[in-house]
Write a structure and sequence with these properties.
Elements: H1 4-25, H2 32-39, H3 43-49, H4 53-72, H5 85-97, H6 101-116, H7 121-133, H8 141-160
Helix pairs in contact: 1-2, 1-6, 2-3, 4-6, 4-7, 5-8, 6-8
Length: 161
């Protein structure tokens, strides 16, 4: 039986391969068998970690949300000094326009997956909620929220190109 570390490493390899397949081929081509083949394991080996394709998609969405939270998410609750509006907008602008093409393809296909599988939406919606709530302080709350929503729209346009 695999140790917890080996199991976690296998799970990460599976998620990496699934993310690559999703980015390259889209959600309709992401199957348990295609993912197992990409990792170089048996279908049964993959099913040990992810019982269904939906489980695999859910894990991909959860990982993407965690990565996005780490990149541009809300500051930690115990941060002594809140980030300035200018710094936050610069960070979001950079994230929107400097994203590698491979990440754009993956995010676009993840959005397509979420639209076809509504159970994938809550973690994404929670990410947006946390992002907007992080802007709910300071003297320019309205401006911060407006700019953030505008950047989200620009990100969507970037993803769809």
């Amino acid at each position: 039986m695999a140790t917890p570390n080996e199991s976690s490493n296998s799970r990460d390899k599976i998620l990496d391969a699934a993310a690559d397949l999703l980015a390259e081929r889209g959600v309709t081509q992401l199957t348990i068998q295609a993912t197992a083949d990409a990792v170089g394991i048996t279908k049964a080996g993959l099913i040990y970690h992810f019982k269904t394709r939906d489980d695999l998609l859910t894990a991909l969405v959860e990982r993407m949300v965690a990565e996005l939270d780490a990149q541009v998410g809300a500051p930690a609750p115990n941060d002594a000094k809140p980030i300035s509006l200018r710094a936050k907008m610069a960070e979001l602008t950079s994230f929107t326009f400097d994203m590698p093409a491979s990440q754009k393809k993956l995010m676009a296909n993840m959005l397509a997956a979420a639209s076809a599988h509504p159970h994938l939406l809550p973690p994404v919606q929670a990410l947006f909620t946390r992002s907007y709530e992080a802007l709910d302080h300071g003297p320019k709350v309205g401006l911060a929220q407006l700019l953030s929503v505008a950047l989200d729209g620009l990100l969507l346009i970037e993803l769809l190109q």
